[in-house]
Amino acid sequence: MKKIGRLDRPDNNGTAHMFDNPVLEKISRTHISIPITMFLGIGVVSLYFALTVTAIPLSTGLLLMLVGFLVFTFVEYMMHKHLYHMIPDSKWKDKLQYSIHGVHHDYPKDKDRLAMPPFVSALYAAIFYFVFTFIMGDYALYFLPGFLIGYALYLGVHFIVHAFQPPKNFLKILWVNHAIHHYKDPDVAFGVSSPLWDIILGTMPKKEK
């Protein structure tokens, strides 16, 4: 099993003190509602401009939103697998990996660090907007809301699976897969909001006999 965190207690209920500077320590934390509200708000603004300043047919726009959503689920999977779980084969990689994700594996119940701080989330949104606009022009105004809805859903699901008990329905798989990822095998179940890409790319947890 690949070691992701620092501790031998993956069910630790505490929190990590990551910065000596109290201001940095404070802004490294966020309530989950803040980035979710930011992404949904930016998505609504983008959709408003898509509807009012472009001549793109609504049917095309809705299709672009769906594509944006699906693209996010793929980005979520690939970042979780290849960035958040990078092999820390150097000191700077080890520090980076722990700062962005390893700390979460050490303290999975720390609700203040289940999302990037607001200023990082805002930077992400700006980068996404400029990259998508460079690639697809005005079509990005429809694509971006779908992508950000996917991001907000990911954050919401990630918070819920850590904060609440699993439901007794088909959604339980999200809780089961994420628990396996945290407590049994960090090399499987990289999809948090959906098992889609785990199924397609062969990283679903193996069923116990």
- Fraction of residues in helices? 55-70%
Structural class by sheet pairing and helices? mainly alpha
Oligomer: single chain
The N- and C-terminal alpha carbons lie at a distance of: 20 Å
Contiguous uncertain segments of 5+ residues: none
Q: Compute the gyration radius: what is it?
A: 18 Å
- Number of strand elements: 0
Give the percentage of residues in beta strands. Answer: under 5%
Task: Please report the number of helical segments.
Answer: 8
- Average pLDDT figure: 88
Topology, element by element:
Layout: H1 22-27, H2 33-53, H3 58-84, H4 91-106, H5 118-136, H6 140-163, H7 172-183, H8 196-201
Write up what this structure looks like.
The protein is globular, with a radius of gyration of 18 Å. It starts with 21 loop residues before the first helix and ends in an 8-residue tail after the last helix. The chain has a domain at 30-167. The protein has eight helices and no strands. It is an all-alpha fold and 209 residues long. The protein has helices spanning 22-27, 33-53, 58-84, 91-106, 118-136, 140-163, 172-183, 196-201.
Key attributes of the depicted protein:
single chain; about 210 residues; mainly alpha; 8 helices
In short:
By secondary structure, the chain is mainly α. The chain has 8 helices and no strands. It has a domain at 30-167.
